[in-house]
Amino acid sequence: EELNGVGNLMDFLDEPFPDVGTYEDFHTIDWLREKSRDTDRHRKITSKSKESIWEFIKSLLDAWSGWLVMLLIGLLSGTLAGVIDLAVDWMTDLKEGVCLSALWYSHEQCCWTSNETTFADRDKCPQWQKWAELMTGYTEGAGVYLLNYFLYVLWALFFSFLAVSLVRVFAPYACGSGIPEIKTILSGFIIRGYLGKWTLLIKTVTLVLAVSSGLSLGKEGPLVHVACCCGNLFCSLFSKYSKNEGKRREVLSAAAAAGVSVAFGAPIGGVLFSLEEVSYYFPLKTLWRSFFAALVAAFTLRSINPFGNNRLVLFYVEYHTPWYMAELVPFILLGVFGGLWGTLFIRCNIAWCRRRKTTRLGKYPVLEVIAVTGITAVLAFPNPYTRRSTSELISELFNDCGALESSQLCDYINNPNMSRSVDDIPDRPAGPGVYSALWQLTLALVFKIVITIFTFGMKIPSGLFIPSMMAYHHHDWIIFKNWCRPGADCVTPGLYAMVGAAACLGGVTRMTVSLVVIMFELTGGLEYIVPLMAAAVTSKWVADAFGKEGIYEAHIQLNGYPYLDQDEFTHRTLATDVMRPRRNEPPLAVLTQDSTTVEDVETLIKDTDYNGFPVVVSHESERLIGFVQRRDLILNIKNARQKQDGVVSNSVVYFTEDAPQIPASNPQPLKLRRILNLSPFTVTDHTPMETVVDIFRKLGLRQCLVTRSGRLLGIITKKDVLRHMAQMMNQDPESIMFN
Amino acid sequence: EELNGVGNLMDFLDEPFPDVGTYEDFHTIDWLREKSRDTDRHRKITSKSKESIWEFIKSLLDAWSGWLVMLLIGLLSGTLAGVIDLAVDWMTDLKEGVCLSALWYSHEQCCWTSNETTFADRDKCPQWQKWAELMTGYTEGAGVYLLNYFLYVLWALFFSFLAVSLVRVFAPYACGSGIPEIKTILSGFIIRGYLGKWTLLIKTVTLVLAVSSGLSLGKEGPLVHVACCCGNLFCSLFSKYSKNEGKRREVLSAAAAAGVSVAFGAPIGGVLFSLEEVSYYFPLKTLWRSFFAALVAAFTLRSINPFGNNRLVLFYVEYHTPWYMAELVPFILLGVFGGLWGTLFIRCNIAWCRRRKTTRLGKYPVLEVIAVTGITAVLAFPNPYTRRSTSELISELFNDCGALESSQLCDYINNPNMSRSVDDIPDRPAGPGVYSALWQLTLALVFKIVITIFTFGMKIPSGLFIPSMMAYHHHDWIIFKNWCRPGADCVTPGLYAMVGAAACLGGVTRMTVSLVVIMFELTGGLEYIVPLMAAAVTSKWVADAFGKEGIYEAHIQLNGYPYLDQDEFTHRTLATDVMRPRRNEPPLAVLTQDSTTVEDVETLIKDTDYNGFPVVVSHESERLIGFVQRRDLILNIKNARQKQDGVVSNSVVYFTEDAPQIPASNPQPLKLRRILNLSPFTVTDHTPMETVVDIFRKLGLRQCLVTRSGRLLGIITKKDVLRHMAQMMNQDPESIMFN
Fold this sequence. Notes:
The structure is a homodimer. Chain A is mainly alpha-helical. In chain A, 56% of the residues lie in helices and 6% in strands.
């Protein structure tokens, strides 16, 4: 009879209750456990697949589901990127005017479809009317200018108000760039809802609004977040991914690659970005699948063709002139500038964000957004380089001055005797347009630098790739122009803008290979890889000299996320210095293998908030048997009390194979060996912390037990490791907030 | 007095004897130990750097030495690749004839420098004379043909005899592709001399000879070996790398990337190849440095410009015609073909190599090489597609038929009324040249397939990238030609050759991302990435269906190297099933912390060949204290016996902090705590083997101790893990030969 009862219990435990094996919000996952759960699942499917054809097909479907998810992610994120591009284009122009022939046309589309315009006047067409023109009928005059100005600011305020309100009401996680959080999630942290459906929807909509409002922010970081939301969405279709936090993160890594792929039109760069910057666990299988997802996304976007140029990004360029060795000097100077700018930006931005977090400022996010938008719009309108969207500006700066270029930057004095080919432009003296453009650009640079510091981190979707790229240095080339031999092909101004962009982006994010590869994919040739490399290396070295962390790591630290970065731990501490309990602290909360009662366990659970408890032979010997999760204990005891007869507060809980010898008068004992992890991770107290950190990082542990010659001494959790690391770097250990 | 003695001993131990901490030949390194040694070194330098300016400069030099090594590797491997290319070009032509104006000119260079030739006859010039012409004066006739034939074969035999003799006499490790061994070395195995200076020199020379002899082998794999030798060479300049096997492997990973970069002219592909295919431990720092080394190597090669086309490889192509969706069907078929060919090749080649290893065949390597060269040369000469070097052939196949192309493959019947543009070729009917070329190509394909199986694995430098790429499928396009609408741009034959090459290479090596990226860098555009991707994916799937391992893994297994691959271990065994001692075996050889005598230790060392011994509290309690290396024990006892008074056979060896209580009459005890590893890695006997495999792989362990509730039960070494894995896959566990 009693044996039967145990047998029933076993069957019952074979089907775990719904929540067993899941994690609580803001907790760290255990990678080893997730991995072995997946292997179990895989084994089950493999053995079942031999039973029937249906099971075999099911096992094939399971094996292919990974590729299917990648395909879906690629398709959806490519489509969303295309839609966002089109919408931003239309809404940015909506701030200036409207297309009368079709309201949903952007300025460029409106005039392209009009057959009344010549190529030279392709920006002007009767169908496109500025608001003031539409309302008053006049096209010139101070009043008209002021009315346009006023309406421009009004639209900007309206867009940003809409964005911040949507975020606040529907999806608070949709704000910001998302990359720090995605890095943390990929390293094995749970933030429920951060990659949810609502976040996806609201982030897409508000991203369009925020970019269109003219704020100094880019769509690149948020696109990574959007792609990761897509990844999470499709994960929920397959239990293989939805029920395993480890497998889910493999999909998310690939989704991040797809996101960068569509943001920059650089599939290989996207994969390397995911590998280098955001991912934590990146097996080769994921590399291959990420590449697939990134390619699908890139081709989906290309078939949507949002910019009408058959390219994935607005600022794709192809240069044709070579560069000279002597030019390496300004390129390296650009690198130094980029590194300094990166350091400055990170410091100022973090200081401002900390201020926002700790003072009353953080209580009025809507007001803050409105204020920044207002200031941005008011200051941006008078300068033609800041009035337009940042990607249009970058596109213009990157471009070579061609014969057909109408940009003021290309306003060189034309010599009618010379043939107007692309290459002879540097021979001509610069016209007044170039000088005025340079002034405007310098103002734009200063303005963007300052405003971006305040913008990044506000409560709306914001990326900083593009704003960082903006902060290039465009003065060198005018100096060089004088230095060049007349008649020879000279420097390519666009190249300087691009190298400067790479340097600044490198200084801010500390990307290395992925940055160079993204730029390489943008220029489409090996020709300019040396300048880019020189600038990126210099920029990283200069920036690293002032502080090792990039903007994302800085924001992770600011928010206290439990992220274990790849930097080497070089201090000489031992496991015994980090483990808990410390001296003077109460002894470690442990369970014994066969002498704790249900009531004892319940008291322990109530009195402490540890995630799990070590199980030892007895309080005297302290020899370690295994480790049991708090969550599993709670669920099992609750279930046993409800469904298993004879389990009362006085029942002994045992973790051994056989029930302990107890007098017949005692209540029925409760066997919990099923939830006992018999292979907890242990290190000795003499293990150097650098090894412990390495083990935590590489194996993705949640906790590790410390022993000395077989006796349990203490426990080290991921939080303890992070706190210790913060302490060693003279930072506040209490800044690590989550467990 | 006694305390003083101990103090002296401590000082003496502070300067370890020369061999402490090194590994024996054919042994596995302990990655965790190497890493912590490097951290110690780094700490020392950092703390010293504050003492004086000179120490500060030294610390800066130390920090920059990594980049310096990368620069040197890039320069040397780029130069060597250029020299090899030039020498192969010259010597391949030497088999046919000689340039009278300058003996060191190849055929092409000879005629380019001659000003008597027109462009159409650029292959013919009076300065270039075939051997028969030079000897007899006649240029035509059967006798002349036969004499040329005979001399061609003779030269081939001479080259290959020279190559195999040089390898046998001077550097036996210079044979083969080298990639399986490099994979094993990078995973943490010691093969002394495999990357030595002699190997570098002889491999470079014999590679030229082997390729020039016309054997069906490529220079790509050996170039990786050559680059790794360069890496090892420069490591010896810096104690940071030469004295730390872990750090040395970081440099070697980067060198492998540089090797692929020059072999294919694909720096990004090289880095991904190193990451995906050969490297084991690849931190982000290495990624960035590898990229640098790969770029330097590529630019060095480009400045040497061995092919005179300003490209890094002979077969760089730029296609201009788009491809159609319907073409995906033949591309996927090519993938299937590639996968099947890969499987077939691996099976046949491994069967042949096993035969060579186990039968008398292996005893006559020189004869084997001579025989294969003879057969290759005799069969190759009559067919113009096999007579030339394989890379020239590939270059011709990859190329579009342009108006200036003199290749027989482009012998379409010209319609004089039509303008001779590049794109209209498909409209013209194929001439007789195309049909005869097709026949010859088919024969060449069959011939190459068969001969490569026998060539790869012979005792001369041989790579198989290029031969695999040869085995493309060139029939489809003639079918498609009829299917195309006349007047429209149709299929690009070169693209089919390239997709076929990618498919075959994928089938043989199971490369994925790196393969597509290398091909992408060869074509220089995103346009053809989808066909390449489709073929690569199909090829890998088809080939994987027949067996998971690529050619390199198969050769690693054939040679019994201790290589732990990245595949997931899915069996349900536990640590207790794998650990030693097994049941019925004698108990584990252990030392006790304070009761073993010097003589006991010496007996244990003599009687066993274990690499190390666990140290326990006592034989009764079996509680684990630490682990001590065999090598360290031998060295320390030998030294103590020589230099330390009072240490005799009867002395007690102790590993505790304080000397054990012993009677005054006993000899002086020997303290060995310094060599005791106080943090040996342990797992419980219940740990699933999948976790153990994961730990071995990720942490790079050499051995792991198995405990149950604090008591030492056994030990698992890397060899045990590999044997167990072989057993689980129904392979002979004794095939794992090294430890």
